[in-house]
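Action item from last week, closing it out:
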Amino acid sequence: MTALLHPALSANELLALFGHFLLLSLLAVGGAITTTPDMHRFVVDEHHWLSNVQFSASIAIAQSAPGPNVLFVAVIGWNVAGPLGALATTSGTLMPSTVLTLFANRWGARRRETRGIRAFTTGLTPLTIGLLLATGWVLAQPYVIAGTHRLGAIALVAFCTVVMLRTRLSPMWLVAFGAVVGGLGWV
């Protein structure tokens, strides 16, 4: 069995990786991306399995690929511990949220018009926005604080924020713009 393990992680560490992503799955209001700050804390700050740049690159690579938004979880796991790491992070993220969503949807559908359900869904909006802002900061931090193109990164973040707040332009155009700016070495 040890031949199947990534050399960097023991079976206990893989189980811890799985367990941590399993717990984060239950906190992923607004999608798995909203738990990125704690994923970063766990794999970068606490265990030093990835660097800041490797972590941000893992998310950028997965987000640029076609497919579900949650692909970044598998890429993080892969970069931490190869195929078994990808299996640990992906199954840890998908299992509890899938089961909980199935039961909550069925329960909530029968009670959709009650005051409690309406208040709950309305209250999730500011929570989701806060989690997305924290995720944006974690992803921008390596480039804004210690990057050689600090001013360009800050300008790009500001530009994209203004465009998203003032227009109905698809975010995909901003992703493409960011890719061009990064490809030219301006950020």
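Closing note: Residues 1-5 have pLDDT under 50 and may be disordered.
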